Amino acid sequence: MTAPARPARSVGVVLPRDLPPTEVIPFAQRAERLGFDELWVVEDLGFRGGVAQAAAVLASTTRVTVGVGILPAGARNVAFAAMEIATLAQLFPGRVVVGIGHGMPQWMRSVGAWPGSPLTLLREYTSALTTLLRGEPGPPAGRYVNVADVRLESAPATTPPLVWGVRGPRSLAAAGAIADGVVLAEPATPEYIRASIATVSGGGAGSPTASLRVVTYDVAAVAASDAAARELVRPALAVVGEPDWHPHIAPLAFADELIALRERAGTPEAFAAALPDEWVDALALVGTPARVHEGITARHRAGATSVILIPVEEDRSAGLENLAAVLV
User: Fold this and answer.
1) Helix, coil or strand: residue 68
2) What's this model's pTM, rounded to 2 decimal places?
3) What's the whole-number mean pLDDT along residues 195-202?
4) What is the C-alpha to C-alpha distance for residues 174 and 182, in angstroms, rounded to an integer?
5) Could you give the count of Cα atoms lying within 13 Å of 26 in the half-sphere of its Cβ?
6) What are the φ and ψ backbone dihedral angles of 86, each rounded to 5 degrees?
7) Residue 94 dihedral angles phi and psi, to the nearest 5°
């Protein structure tokens, strides 16, 4: 049982975490009708569970690939995670991609699930999850994961791709040897994509990029003018100057200036308002349909296999329709 081959270059969209419950299924179905290749659900603390969302979306659509981004390893026993993932893969073969990671430190600490060594946990977790999904007995016990006596009674015929949602260089390097790919959170500029792939390539045996699945997230807005689209994405870029986002910014020519601007601005909101237009254009997929299409193409050329758009418009349905203009 092997993971599916790396897909052709695709374009997807994130299902907003704060959609009203009655809009979740219609949003997913509309995304599929509009022609998006993938739909990614998020599991952010306090919002909705990733597995439950994925199951509902898969059951209400017929074609679109559904990604779960991401399941924090510290929050789920790996044996029960394997059961959930195997169920999705059996019921909807070939349509599931699962992201796993150590999770946001502040969230994991708030629920008592932040490990002493996040990378050790992620290594052990991925190894155990992969083994269980193949229908084999769990590996020997490690520091955090002990499922040596566990075996799934019914393993999926095809193991879903497991991609790491990580940021730091050590985690990216380890992903090349352990995971099927990576999820690069926003902003996933071409520079950041290339730097991340180079780090992943240095951490695995042989040439992992030949089969690497690289999923990128970017806030996105399509409008009749570049200026109008920029105003839509600015609030979503308010966090970009924070320390957790520095790995994303480091490959950019204006990285030092951006960090200095964040320090001078005082608040995230003031920082977002002060971003020069050319920085906004670099940090998001923003502008007219032609301009955004160029940005997607640049990310694919940099090595992304799945470019995932994060809608920012207050009217989510209208925003989804606008984003779909880049697909034609």
Assistant:
1) strand
2) 0.94
3) 89
4) 11
5) 9
6) -60, -40
7) 80, 5
CB 240 within 8 A of CB 187: yes
296 closest CA partner among 213, 178, 202, 217: 217
pLDDT at 7: 53
What residues pair up with 308 in beta bridges, in sequence order?
A: 12, 217
Three-class SS state of 150 = coil
* Other beta carbons within 10 Å of 6: 17
* 19 within 8 A of 48, measured Cβ to Cβ: no
The owner of tokens 């992903």 is: 175
Give residue 261's pLDDT band: very low, low, confident or very high (50, 70, 90). very high
CA distance 215 to 138: 28
Average pLDDT over residues 231-252: 93
Alpha carbon distance 64, 59 (integer Å): 11
From 5, 8, 94, 98, select the one nearest 305 (Cα to Cα): 8
Q: What is the pLDDT of residue 206?
A: 41
State yes or no: pLDDT of 2 exceeds 60: no
Domain 10-234+285-327 fold: TIM Barrel (3.20.20)
Domain residue spans of the chain: 10-234+285-327
Read off the pLDDT of each residue in 155-179 and give the average, rounded to a whole number: 91
Residue of 49, 103, 16 lying closest to 308 (CA atoms):
16
**Residue 275 corresponds to which tokens in the numbers above?**
């971003």
Among residues 142, 240, 255, the alpha carbon closest in space to that of 191 is found at 255
